[in-house]
Write a structure and sequence with these properties.
Layout lengths: L26 E6 L6 E10 L4 E10 H4 L4 H16 L31 H11 L30 H16 L10 E6 L3 E9 L2 E9 L4
Parallel strand pairs: 1-3
Antiparallel strand pairs: 2-3, 2-6, 4-5, 5-6
Length: 217
């Protein structure tokens, strides 16, 4: 764990799953050749805003680009997208300024930002409490508190919301470069290197999509 230690994590390997569909109460991480999508890493988070919960998170690492990337780029991309799954926001959204030394800082020099740092762990401790703490509320009510471990399998998503969720997934897969041009999608961050979008699904559920982009060659 980190310092301070806010998360107790168990991991398991699964059979290969190209689609990397989210599952309630876990963070799923998949790598594969997803083609010329213009993103090398992407994370899709399903949020319950009313209860301050992450219901599910799925991160995909695109080997179409990463199989010829440096080890630093691979590690940065994986750390960054998994960080979003636990609730970490971007530390800085300028790719050209000095690096902060953690993987939630945008950078064009990934070797310098390959891992989380103490500031990331402190943020997580503010969300979850320190192990063996059982905090269930974020200390800062302004944060989009993300308490994955509280997501219960019994949570019911209505048919209407599930249909909108599946529709949004199809929109993401077919049009990842121009989501903000589609009805209901909103772009929160957008530049040549990265984008963040969200779409309201109803019943206080929101899909948030973070992607690290690849420049046109």
């Amino acid at each position: 764990g980190g310092n301070p230690d806010a998360l107790t994590i168990s991991t398991s390997r699964r059979s290969y799953e190209y689609e990397c569909e989210g599952e309630r109460g876990i963070i799923k991480v998949c790598n594969g050749n997803y083609g010329d999508t213009k993103w090398r890493g992407i994370n899709v988070v399903l949020l319950d805003r009313r209860r301050n919960l992450i219901l599910e998170s799925s991160a995909k690492l695109n080997e179409y680009y990463l199989n010829r990337a440096t080890d630093g780029q691979k590690q940065y991309t994986m750390c960054h997208e998994i960080g979003h799954g636990f609730g970490l926001p971007h530390w800085d959204e300028d790719f050209y300024n000095a690096d902060l030394g953690n993987c939630m800082d945008y950078t064009n020099r990934p070797e310098r930002n390959k891992r989380p740092d103490e500031s990331n762990f402190r943020f997580l401790a503010g969300l979850y409490g320190e192990v063996p703490g059982t905090a269930v509320e974020a200390q800062d009510g302004g944060n989009r508190a993300l308490l994955l471990r509280r997501a219960a399998p019994k949570d019911v998503v209505t048919d209407k919301v599930r249909a909108r969720y599946l529709e949004a997934k199809k929109e993401l897969e077919s049009n990842p470069e121009n989501l903000h041009e589609l009805a209901r999608w909103r772009r929160l961050v957008g530049n040549e290197y990265a984008e963040t979008h969200e779409v309201e699904l109803g019943d206080d559920l929101v899909m948030v999509v973070h992607m690290l982009r690849v420049l046109e060659e």
